[in-house]
Design a protein that fits this description.
The complex is a heterodimer of chains A (125) and B (138). Chain A is an all-alpha fold. Chain A has helices at 2-29, 37-48, 51-71, 76-82, 86-96, 104-122. Chain A is globular. The relative contact order of chain A is 0.15. The chains are: A mainly alpha (125), B mainly alpha (138).
Chain lengths: 125, 138
């Protein structure tokens, strides 16, 4: 069970950290208004020039291989919902690192999601 | 007013892409990884062989393509909406994952697990009624 726990922790921490880094990089680029293919290619190239993007991608790659390892011995319907543990970490991270204002309703929503994750976890045995 | 409608429309469109391509990718990865073998039996010396099996699986590549599509949609929506709004909204994908796991992989999903997934969806609906952006434009 220790291997499962370590994989889940690695997946949640690196996945959430990676998404926070990518979000930080995206905010540096600014809002996208032009959705034509050429403009989207330009947008991707622009994103690749932001250092935070690379840090985020590296962390998300680590999360990806942790996910693959878990999927090799657990059901998809179990693995994917338990990774929603990242909601708590992500919301706290968004408030602390990205300085987003999280209102009460969002906190309630995230708490309900976490309750759902707990129920899915209990369904494992 | 019209600008606000367009803002919400493009946000919902991107979230729909996230909710479809992310679960599909995970289901395909799950299918591919079951063929590779359990990580419980991986040893450090076997890792090159395991990696070779992972990257020669068609299901894994299809899953990666689906997740890349999800990732591009995710990057786009993060340029105008808050991370703390997008992340919970994208959890709609968890419900779709349950449905696809049952339909495509034939996984046995107990009533308790369906209940957990349903509770996650309720949480998503609560979060979905909050504003997409709470910080000032840069």
């Amino acid at each position: 069970m220790l291997r499962e726990f370590l994989l889940l922790t690695l997946l949640v921490v690196s996945g959430t950290g990676g998404e926070l880094c990518v979000s930080h990089a995206m905010k540096q680029i600014g809002e996208v208004h032009d959705f034509r293919p050429l403009a989207l290619v330009k947008f991707v190239l622009q994103a690749l020039r932001v250092a935070w993007m690379w840090v985020g991608v590296a962390m998300m790659a680590l999360a990806f291989f942790s996910l693959l390892a878990m999927l090799s011995f657990e059901n998809v319907s179990f693995v994917v919902p338990v990774t929603a543990l990242s909601y708590a970490a992500g919301t706290v991270g968004a408030a602390v690192f990205l300085r987003e204002r999280i209102n009460t309703q969002r906190w309630v929503g995230v708490a309900i999601v976490c309750l759902g994750v707990t129920i899915v976890w209990l369904s494992h045995r | 007013m019209k600008e606000a409608e367009g803002f919400h429309l493009k946000t919902y469109l991107m979230i729909a892409c996230i909710a479809i391509f992310s679960p599909l990718g995970n289901v395909l990865l799950g299918k591919g990884m079951k063929d590779v073998g359990s990580a419980r039996e991986w040893s450090p010396s076997a890792l090159p062989h395991v990696l070779a099996r992972i990257f020669s699986s068609g299901y894994i590549w299809l899953g990666v393509a689906s997740l890349l599509t999800f990732f591009v949609a995710y990057m786009l929506v993060l340029t105008w909406a808050d991370y703390s709004y997008v992340q919970p909204s994208s959890s709609l994908a968890y419900a779709v994952t349950g449905i696809l796991s049952y339909l495509l992989l034939g996984e046995v999903i107990t009533p308790l697990r369906w209940l957990g997934i349903a509770v996650i969806c309720v949480g998503v609906l609560v979060v979905g009624h909050t504003a997409p952006r709470t910080t000032e434009r840069v």
